[in-house]
Task: inverse folding
């Protein structure tokens, strides 16, 4: 058996080119499912547009350190149903069992026309598995950094990955999520649970030693003010781009569900992050004046998002 889906990143809003890879892959999978009306919503309703972690040295891998097992319940918060298979450090004894289970889920999802979301596709980030071939024992994959086949083509360059390499690449962890259906959960209940999840993320209710939630702001700001390191210039850009692009989805979700006050605040938050990212990518960041402009924009976003958190807590 074999099947190949025609999937691309086109149509997934990524204002910086650095949006968190799991969120982008999740949105693309939903877009190419029977539940495409949730393409934008799911990044907010799963809580990912509210999550922030900042490593003290701006290590980019900090954005990918979270409780992988929570992704199923977070995505299902948004009204979808999922299958999930994970295998982590110290679980070598179940490697084959979990890999075979994941392969079956992937093939079932692709047979249903929906790509699978998987860790470590092409690069140590989340990407999509978009096809399989039992004869060659190969998956077709779409990496987060895949290029267009040519400048005029809507298609992207995919890559093949052997079945037996799944979960055993550069960072040998297995994490495969597949979308299996949609529940009858009401929009009202989805909103209520999204507010709970957003507040939990903003309060930093997760395991990690990194600055997290709303307190990620001061941790990031100080790299532009107190502890600037020119060698970390790209890392600054990565953090601004990763979290800035996500804020768009918080704004759009609240606008869609009629929470005007929150939508207005998050529109301003998104605008601040986006302008900060633009300054970083178009100006000399070694100039203290440019760094201060970025810091001021992040301080404005920080104040606004704290206000948003207080409003959301009043709804609960």
Result:
């Amino acid at each position: 058996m074999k099947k190949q889906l025609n999937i691309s990143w086109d149509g997934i809003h990524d204002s910086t080119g650095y949006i968190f890879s799991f969120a982008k892959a999740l949105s693309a999978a939903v877009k190419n499912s029977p539940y495409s009306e949730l393409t934008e919503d799911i990044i907010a309703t799963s809580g990912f547009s509210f999550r922030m972690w900042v490593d003290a040295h701006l290590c980019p891998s900090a954005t990918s350190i979270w409780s992988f097992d929570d992704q199923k319940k977070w995505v299902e918060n948004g009204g979808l149903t999922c299958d999930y298979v994970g295998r982590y450090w110290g679980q070598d004894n179940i490697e084959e069992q979990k890999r075979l289970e994941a392969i079956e889920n992937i093939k079932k999802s692709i047979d249903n026309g929906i790509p699978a979301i998987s860790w470590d596709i092409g690069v140590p980030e989340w990407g999509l598995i978009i096809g399989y071939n039992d004869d060659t024992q190969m998956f077709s994959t779409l990496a987060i950094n895949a290029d267009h086949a040519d400048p005029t083509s809507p298609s992207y360059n995919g890559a093949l990955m052997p079945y037996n390499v799944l979960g055993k690449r550069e960072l040998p962890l297995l994490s495969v999520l597949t979308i299996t259906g949609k529940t009858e959960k009401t929009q009202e209940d989805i909103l209520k649970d999204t507010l709970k999840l957003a507040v939990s993320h903003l309060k930093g209710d997760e395991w990690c030693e990194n600055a997290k939630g709303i307190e990620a702001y001061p941790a990031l700001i100080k790299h532009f003010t107190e502890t600037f390191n020119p060698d970390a210039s790209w890392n600054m850009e990565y953090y601004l781009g990763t979290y800035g692009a996500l804020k768009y989805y918080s704004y759009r979700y609240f606008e869609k569900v009629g929470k005007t006050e929150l939508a207005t605040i998050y529109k301003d938050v998104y605008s601040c992050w986006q302008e900060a990212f633009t300054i970083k990518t178009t100006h000399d960041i070694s100039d203290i004046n440019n760094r201060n402009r970025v810091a001021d924009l992040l301080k404005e976003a920080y104040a606004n998002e704290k206000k948003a958190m207080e409003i959301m807590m009043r709804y609960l």
Summary: The chain is about 45% helix and 15% strand. The longest helix spans residues 288-315. The chain has two domains: 2-39+80-182, 187-315.
